[in-house]
Design a protein that fits this description.
This protein has helices at residues 8-26, 32-50, 55-62, 70-78, 120-125, 133-148, 166-170, 173-185, 201-205, 226-234, 240-247, 251-256, 275-293, 298-310; strands at 83-84, 97-104, 107-114, 153-159, 191-200, 212-216, 220-222, 262-264. By secondary structure, it is an alpha/beta fold. Strands 1, 2, 3, 4, 5, 6, 7 and 8 form an 8-stranded mixed beta sheet that branches.
Length: 317
């Protein structure tokens, strides 16, 4: 288990607990009471740290190297039923954007999401979760296929942004994202969006238009990353903590502004601390959201979706 800087007091107590247990196993000394005291202190410290997280600390948790990625969620939720589909039928198969058919119970869904990779080799292979235009075009192709066969769409967002390279711009990155936003607003099947990690900029919005938009507790969703915001405003990354605070990018802030519909609770310490519990929570949230949407006609779905997004940012005195 890797620890972030603000988690070091937890690491210290967990190390103490481990050493205490080893002493008990290797000697005849009764360390039960000492271990119990350390465990109580550990639980209290965890609660104290995680209930007072700053926006920047939540950003750090969303990037935790042990945190589950999109394919982890899909495989855990769908099991052997997931069938990955490839290619945009125009340029190539973007490995940063994955998609395919899978089942939750007896219901089929079209799953689409960004995959980051879990080590240096796979991160390069997945381009760090930054999709090119062909990734967004693949996503749109799969959404259109789902619409054709009446299959609901689930999008899982975890990206630091769309790929900003020259070749991506040459192939129409902005147009591809804009086309997806347009087509998703009028897609005639339910769309459920879950932010499972980073939700940055147009890269997230390209698959982020949903009838129901959910955020895991320790994720963020913003037009720009705190580091990029800091570098623009202060010409330095040193002010990323202030930028994170000002951007109001946490799940709590987004729910308060009515930009997302609900927050999925994570286990104490983050999604990586209890993966099975996190996967179950996400699966249940998807099923519940689909249950609320499945009886709406295509016309009602599109009308409600359009109203939802048209009302964002509207304030009354």
């Amino acid at each position: 288990m890797e620890y972030l800087e603000f988690e070091l007091p937890i690491k210290e107590l967990e190390d103490q607990l481990q050493k205490c247990k080893i002493i008990g196993e290797e000697s005849e000394v009764d360390v039960t009471e000492t271990c119990t005291n350390i465990e109580k202190k550990l639980v209290a410290t965890q609660k104290e740290i995680y209930k007072n997280l700053t926006p920047w600390q939540r950003v750090q948790l969303s990037r935790h190297p042990d945190r589950p990625y999109v394919l982890d969620y899909i495989r855990a939720i769908c099991g052997e039923s997931f069938l990955e589909l490839h290619g945009d039928r125009s340029f190539k198969d973007d490995k940063a954007m994955i998609g395919g058919l899978g089942k939750i119970g007896d219901q089929s869904f079209m799953f689409i999401g960004q995959q980051k990779g879990f080590n240096t080799k796979t991160r390069q292979y997945r381009n760090f979760g930054m999709a090119n235009p062909e990734g967004y075009r693949k996503a749109l192709r799969l959404m259109k296929s789902a619409e054709k066969f009446g299959i609901p769409v689930v999008t899982l967002i975890d990206t630091p942004g769309a790929f900003p390279g020259l070749e991506a711009e040459e192939r129409g990155q902005g147009e591809a994202i804009a086309r997806n936003i347009l087509e998703m607003t009028r897609l005639k099947v339910p769309i459920i969006t879950v932010i499972v990690g980073e939700g940055a900029s147009g890269g997230a919005l390209g698959i982020g238009v949903g009838d129901v938009v959910l955020m895991l507790e320790n994720t963020w969703y913003s037009v720009i990353s705190p580091e990029s915001c800091s570098s623009i405003l202060w010409r330095s990354w040193e002010f990323k903590e202030q930028a994170a605070e000002a951007l109001k990018l946490t799940a709590i802030d987004m729910k308060k502004q009515k930009l997302v519909d609900d927050i999925i609770k994570e286990p104490l310490g983050g999604a990586h601390r209890d993966r099975a519990k996190t996967f179950l929570a996400v699966s249940n949230a998807i099923e519940k959201s689909y249950g609320d949407l499945k009886n709406l006609s295509p016309k009602e779905l599109v009308a409600k979706r359009m109203d939802k997004y048209c009302n964002m940012g509207v304030f009354k005195d």
